[in-house]
Amino acid sequence: MLGAMVAMAAALALAVVVLPSVIAPRSGVGPGGGEASPLVTGEPTREPTVAPTATPTPVPLAHAQKWFLSFDYPANWTLTDRDTFAADNGLSSASATDGNPLVFGFVGNVAASEECAGSTGGGIYTCTTNWALAEGSVAIRFEIAPRTSGSIRPTSIWTARQAVNGTEIPGAEALTIDGLPARFARSTSDVIPYSTETVPGATEVLWWGLPSQQQYSFGYSIVAGIRGPNDAELEAQAEALVAGIHFVPEPVMLPTDPAALAQARQSALLAFFADQASSANAEHVHAYDCFPRTPGASNQTTIIQTLNGSAPMTQPLPVTCQTMSSDPNSMQGWTVTLKQTWLAGRGYPAAELTVVCYTRGDGGTWGCSFSPISIVYPHVGKSKYAG
User: Fold this and answer.
1) For strand 334-342 and strand 312-328, is the pairing parallel, antiparallel, or unpaired?
2) Quick one: DSSP state of residue 370?
3) pLDDT tens, 172-192?
4) Exposure winner among 34, 65, 102, 230, fewest CB in 10 A?
């Protein structure tokens, strides 16, 4: 399916539409924001004279569907598609063709480019952007975040994982793009926000972080380098492009009706447990069976398989398994919280393990975390997969 999505994302539509670039102010509005009123005199009231407003100049737009995104941009701009991620199954930390540059492409009224030196080993390439900014120009770079340890551009990170964890980026503005959480920051110098990288010639630099629907721990870093003198116009065009981005495929929003939301919660929870069973190996496919399929319910039972390992237990362990909650999260998915506890026994202490899993809206699992990660189950035997 992902291969089909990549093929779909490689198509670039050249349809051109026309939209106004400026919204004209409302007529009859005074400087203080209130409606203009006629003077009160002995003369008959006359309607105030309102100067005609200029008709906004239409801006022809081209449409692109690239990099699991779709967006509109001024038709006289250039789109450069590096397509470095296609062979790597969507957003990924490496490229099968260029090593590790991680830049998908550029959009702007100048032809920016990515230049990479040869790999020194380990598939890591040293890459730099030639922004090519002239007066009155803008270049917008789309790339993956986070970058790898070999990166020379430590751009900030905004991913689905951070969004659902409640992580914040100091000073960044919270935005919603196509229904999903995003972040925005502006630099009035040539330095990219949250980075040591500069954009030569830029009078301001804009940065956006967008989560990815394809990879839970990766996202998009979008950087716009702008060089005046017409900064305001170029900034507005860059902001309009990013604000109009749609994810491909389009995100499915959770229902807002309480009854429909409750039904979606239960359906996703059942799918989550089924997903856990199907993805586990043959030795612990039943590790999640002790948890009730209803949020808030608990179950006292015995287990012979652990949640955090592949080895079977040598004797049953009495436990309490609780499905604490399944709550909607900002990525239009669910945060499922489970807890497993047991009392002290001969040769082992009492313990409690909390598992937090993040799922898509349909219950498909993105990832789970364990707390504490150092917990040790009693009676654990040897895995048949051990060497």
Assistant:
1) antiparallel
2) E
3) 999 999 999 999 999 999 999
4) 34
Greatest pairwise CA separation for the chain in angstroms: 102
| Beta bridge partner(s), residue 29 | 35
pLDDT of residue 225: 98
**Structure letter (DSSP) for residue 87:** G
Task: List, for residues 42-87, the tens digit of each pLDDT value.
Answer: 445 555 556 566 566 678 999 999 889 999 999 999 999 875 443 3
Beta carbons of 305 and 283 less than 8 angstroms apart: yes
Q: What is the pLDDT of residues 229-247, one digit of tens each?
A: 999 999 999 999 999 999 9
And the tokens for 63? Answer: 């449409």
Please give the Cα distance from 201 to 129 (Å, whole number).
13
Cβ count within 10 A of residue 382: 9
DSSP string, 223-275: EEEEESSSHHHHHHHHHHHHHT-EESSPPPPPP-SHHHHHHHHHHHHHHHHHH
For residue 7, the surrounding DSSP H or E stretch is helix 2-9
pLDDT tens sequence across 277-309: 776 566 667 889 999 999 999 999 999 989 987
**Residue-wise over 295-314: b if at least 16 C-beta within 10 A, else e?**
beeeeeeebebbbbebbbbe
CA distance 155 to 157: 7
What is the pTM assigned to this prediction?
A: 0.75
